[in-house]
Design brief:
By secondary structure, this protein is of the alpha/beta class. It is built from 6 helices and 9 strands; from the N terminus they run βββαββαβαββααβα. The strands form 2 sheets. The chain has a 7-stranded mixed sheet, with helices on both faces.
């Protein structure tokens, strides 16, 4: 199972590319790669854009159209997946409270036969998202502007296995300085 980390945005509300922001002594992009790898994903690909940087332990792909939104990063990431990969787990760099445990839960339902799955929190689908190869072209076609796999998950909900991750992860994302402070408090402590 490949891991695909979306980390191309400029972080306009935060004032800097989120991929380069440090939390817990680690850049968000590196933390996301580690989470995917420790959860069992290989290879791990990272889609970069606003911040073109080296990332240890991952293959990087540059999205030259990153300013158009997350949809273009989903498309670029899917296009870059090796032919040998049968499924991918998509995660977002700005959600550092998603854990390797949540990744492992999604990989487990895949091993049990699920071909599309999504982590849920409070019953709401969020990230990460697991997609079997047969769904990539549909997700690719539906991903546009700042929307990734959400339209696929809604339209084809009957094909998607939901995986509760409330007890081991959080989908809190970092969009503003306040979000960053709150997440840092959770990771670093007071």
């Amino acid at each position: 199972m490949a891991g695909l980390l979306l980390a191309a945005g400029s972080g306009s509300r935060l004032g800097r590319p989120k991929a380069l922001v440090e939390v817990g002594g680690q850049r968000l992009v590196d933390r996301g790669v580690r989470t995917l790898a420790e959860g069992g994903c290989a290879p791990v690909l990272v889609v970069l854009g606003a911040a073109d940087t080296s990332v240890h332990g991952a293959l990087t792909v540059l999205n030259s159209d990153w300013a158009s939104g997350m949809g273009s990063s989903v498309r670029v990431g899917i296009d870059a997946l090796p032919d040998t990969v049968d499924a991918v787990l998509v995660a977002l760099a700005d959600q550092p409270l998603v854990t390797a445990g949540a990744v492992r839960r999604l990989l487990l339902v895949h091993a049990q036969g699920a071909r599309a799955a999504v982590a849920t929190y409070g019953g709401n689908p969020r990230n990460p998202v697991l997609l079997g190869r047969e769904h990539w072209s549909t997700v690719h076609a539906m991903a546009e502007r700042d929307v990734g796999a959400r339209p696929f998950l809604r339209t084809y909900s009957h094909l998607v296995t939901t995986v509760a991750c409330d007890d081991i992860a959080s989908p809190e994302d970092i969009d503003t300085a306040e979000d960053l402070a709150r997440v840092r408090d959770r990771i670093d402590g007071p």
